């Protein structure tokens, strides 16, 4: 495929450090729309407010506020912030779920960025089909446009079977029908849409159907959370990038029998946690990703 | 999106456990291994079978809707209280086959798992 990201280049760059340059697609961007201009946004993920295991994160009450402060202190403010789910840690008590969502919202309101978008993770939404989440943050799937990029927020968590589901897939199809084949499209999900590691349920039951709907569009990039670590993967020409957590890290897929959280390392506090800055590169129709720490070392 | 209520209605309408019917027909003399499930554990959580032995897993959940997923064999079943689910495991080589709940069932869901040990 002429517009496919060269996998070797992509992963070579990914291995160089915390910054990943996604290249390609430059042939698609001739005649750039006037509305298109470079900007950046910040992805925060898996904040799991309400988690309280000090062996995993002794600063469980302070990590999210530190992340908010870190974003506020960025020398160049992002156009918007996107939280990609698991805002709260799950609880079987509906009242406690709402208390955690309320506390999370209060802390997140400390962001000075004027535009903040949210979406649920299964910890927020799977036990009540997103009811409590929606009371605080509204729709669990939606789309918006910003400076020539079409953003789609897909909910693959409110259904406890971890499916997008037929109605939302139809909505996705209808939403995509408003776009040109060369439109710049960014998709946010919580869980990976592809089978990242089925042994740990790191997948979406009908994610292949969502990918099939996206596949005719030449310039699609997916940002997601759920796995609490960086992962970069291609399905055809579609790039998928997972983000770090802001509460606890999880092991690399298949690196140990179970997906238990990585224990806190006092010699390297906050290691494995962080957030992401995504800068658009209109000239090459790609993105520059910078993985940023919660606390600067 | 499927609500929990719709999910149950769907199951009652016969949409569940796609693998069940042909498996029951093939059951014959195959050993049936019973597994019970409840939030957030399977009992037993370790099942040992012989290499080359085909078995039937019969799984019964006692409390809430959940799932049983054997990803290595791409086999899964929805578990509904009061409705035993059956899955046929074809003969396997020696090794381990992890399984887990794939329907988010509560605060301990992510630790609800087990393993089938296939021994030579």
From TrEMBL, chain A:
Taxonomic superkingdom? Bacteria
Q: What protein am I looking at?
A: Metallophosphoesterase
Checking Pfam families in the record gives: Metallophos
Instruction: Please report the organism this UniProt entry assigns to the protein.
Output: Crenobacter oryzisoli
- InterPro entries from the entry? Calcineurin-like_PHP, Metallo-depent_PP-like, STPP_CPPED1
Q: Where is the Calcineurin-like phosphoesterase domain?
A: 40-229
PANTHER family referenced in this protein's UniProt entry, alphabetically = BLL3016 PROTEIN, METALLOPHOSPHOESTERASE, CALCINEURIN SUPERFAMILY
Automatic annotation (TrEMBL), chain B:
Quote the SUPFAM superfamilies the UniProt record gives: Cupredoxins (SSF49503)
**Localization:** Cell outer membrane
Going by the record, the broad EC class of this enzyme is oxidoreductase
What InterPro entries does the database record attribute to this sequence? CcO_II-like_C (IPR002429), Cupredoxin (IPR008972), EfeO_Cupredoxin (IPR028096), TAT_signal (IPR006311)
Q: Which PROSITE patterns match?
A: COX2_CUA, TAT
Which Pfam families does this chain map to? Cupredoxin_1
The record's EC number reads 1.7.2.4
Q: How does it sit in the membrane?
A: Lipid-anchor
Q: Where is the Cytochrome oxidase subunit II copper A binding domain positioned along the sequence?
A: 24-120
Q: Which cofactor(s) does the record list?
A: Ca(2+)
Involved pathway(s): Nitrogen metabolism; nitrate reduction (denitrification); dinitrogen from nitrate: step 4/4
Q: Which reaction does it catalyse?
A: N2 + 2 Fe(III)-[cytochrome c] + H2O = nitrous oxide + 2 Fe(II)-[cytochrome c] + 2 H(+)
The UniProt entry's sequence similarity note says: Belongs to the NosZ family.
What job does the chain carry out? Nitrous-oxide reductase is part of a bacterial respiratory system which is activated under anaerobic conditions in the presence of nitrate or nitrous oxide.
Please give the subunit comment from the record.
Answer: Homodimer.
Output this protein's name.
Nitrous-oxide reductase
User: Which species is this UniProt entry from?
Assistant: Crenobacter oryzisoli
């Amino acid at each position: 495929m002429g517009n496919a990201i060269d996998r070797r280049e992509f992963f070579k760059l990914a291995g160089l450090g915390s910054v990943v340059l996604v290249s390609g697609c430059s042939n698609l961007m001739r005649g750039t729309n006037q509305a298109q201009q470079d900007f950046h946004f910040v992805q925060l993920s898996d904040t799991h407010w309400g988690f309280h295991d000090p062996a995993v994160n002794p600063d469980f009450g302070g990590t999210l506020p530190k992340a908010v402060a870190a974003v506020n202190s960025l020398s160049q403010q992002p156009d918007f912030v996107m939280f990609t789910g698991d805002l709260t840690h799950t609880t079987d008590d509906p009242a406690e779920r709402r208390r955690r969502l309320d506390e999370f919202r209060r802390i997140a309101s400390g962001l000075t960025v004027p535009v903040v978008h949210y979406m649920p993770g299964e910890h927020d939404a799977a036990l009540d089909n997103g009811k409590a989440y929606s009371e605080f943050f509204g729709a669990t799937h939606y789309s918006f446009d910003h400076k020539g990029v079409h953003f789609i927020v897909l909910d693959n968590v409110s259904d406890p079977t971890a499916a997008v589901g037929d109605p939302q897939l139809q909505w996705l199809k209808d939403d995509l029908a408003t776009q040109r084949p060369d439109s710049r499209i960014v998709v946010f999900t919580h869980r990976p849409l592809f089978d990242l590691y089925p042994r740990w349920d790191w997948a979406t039951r009908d994610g292949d159907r969502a990918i099939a709907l996206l596949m005719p569009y030449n310039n699609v990039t997916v940002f997601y959370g759920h796995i609490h670590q960086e992962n970069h993967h291609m399905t055809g020409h579609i790039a998928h990038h997972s983000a770090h957590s802001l509460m606890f890290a999880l092991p690399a897929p298949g690196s140990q029998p179970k997906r238990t959280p990585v224990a806190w390392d006092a010699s390297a506090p906050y290691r494995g946690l962080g957030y992401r800055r995504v800068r658009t590169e209109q000239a090459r129709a790609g993105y520059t990703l910078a993985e940023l720490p919660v606390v600067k070392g | 999106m499927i609500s929990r209520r719709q999910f149950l209605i769907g199951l009652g309408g016969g949409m569940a456990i796609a693998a069940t019917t042909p498996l029951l027909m093939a059951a014959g003399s195959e050993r049936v291994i019973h597994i019970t499930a409840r939030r957030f554990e399977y009992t037993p959580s370790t099942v040992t079978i012989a290499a080359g032995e085909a078995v039937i897993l019969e799984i019964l959940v006692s409390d809430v809707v959940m799932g049983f997923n054997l990803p290595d064999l791409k086999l899964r079943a929805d578990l509904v209280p009061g409705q035993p689910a059956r899955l046929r495991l074809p003969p396997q080589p020696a090794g381990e086959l992890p399984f887990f709940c794939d329907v988010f069932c509560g605060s301990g869901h992510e630790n609800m798992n087990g393993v089938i040990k296939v021994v030579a």
